[in-house]
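My hope is that you will study the record closing this message with an eye to the fold:
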Amino acid sequence: MKRGIVHRWWWLALLVLLGALARPLFTLWKGAHTGDGLLPATPAGTADDISRLNATPIDSVVRVVNDTDSAIAQLRDLLTYARGRGLPVSIAGARHSMGGHTIAPNGVQIDMLPFKRMSLDTATMVLTVGAGALWSEVIPYLNGFGRAVRVMQSDNAFSVGGSISVNCHGWQHNSPPIASTVIAFDLMQADGSVVRCSREENRELFALALGGYGLFGIILEVELATVPNEVYTYHRMVMSSGEYVKHYAGRVDADSNVRMVYGRLNVNAEDFLERAMLHWFSYDSPAERTSRLDEPGLEEVKRSVFLGSKDDDYGKRMRWNSEQAFTKTRIGSRITRNQVMNESPALYMNRSPGRTDVLHEYFIPRAQFNGFISALQRVVPAHGQDLLNVTIRNVYRDEDTFLRYADDEMFAFVMFFNQAMTDAAETDMRALTTELIDAALGLGGTYYLPYRPHATHEQLAAGYPMAGDFFARKRIYDPDDRFVNKFYLNYGRTGHRP
């Protein structure tokens, strides 16, 4: 009799366990099978970017050769061809911008990716690198010398030329944008001449082309300052989002050993943006020159958890809880700088033909951090967009570029949406974006320019009061408007509206 009762209780317990596991297992299964097909190819005769929302007819694509002298000759011939036929020219790398920044309608697109030779001056530790090189190629190269990139994005799939053309920033603590690490670069102008740009030579062109979105010429080779590769210790704490700045000041600003830092906000509906995780890496020791770069582990599981959160509030809660649990086990672990930065965005990139990923980024003064979270909590749920992630970064004042987004220290809110590729979804995203830009501007902040062209002309003028002068100088250096892209057509040419 007792054995029968025990047997029944065992089965009941098993059923309860299976019931408890059913929902998370289904979420993982859904994530593993979300977007596991192939995205449609860009139609012949057109160019697009990673958003897949900018398919545009073009004349041709020219891939630049990897030899510097041959590339210069090739590009001069290309400019002669374009000038003779009255064609505009655009410049493309990894094509991660989302507003047509790499596309000139009916023009010639220069594919810089093959142009990626690099060398390190072991006396000055300055890296000379072709603009087409990806950070995924630069990081292993520098790792072999015991060196590391000083400033870059949090992922390694971007090109060097693209990164300095948008003046990117990343997790590097107490750092201005990447322009601060550029020693010099060679720039081919519309007439085919090549000039060296630095803080001493052609200073105005230096400031205009850095963060200039390819409108002032073709960036060829770039000289970048590097830093030693180091071993870091990982730290993490969880808090209410309203206390993020306080803990940032106490844990990060107060510790001179902190080297890299980022934050996350929860995106599930129940307590939307009420919780935050602060992650930071502090100096531990010099890295061995032969430090290995390993492939990150558990990539398929991480991708399944992330994709399982798409359009699924349970999945979002599960992801937040699993990230807390996993990162807690990593507290105190040691990792090299190069390993931290050598992450691929393949973990979260969309592969669903009917949907796309859209990024927003807003730069907010420290004192208005909580005010912007309140604005996000009010605005985002009122729209039909699927917010998957909010990462927080810190960026210091930009002293180098003309079209700058950081006149002072800013906290950057990087927002990752999954959007349906429909007219209705695009209309809703435009409305959401303009509302968030207004909120950022009202708090003394601004927005980042590489993303969808949803800002109004008035918002551009308010967020970038130097934009009119920027476009005027573009026409001085390039009076025939040889270098053109859709961003320029939307905002820089009189009579065009986004």
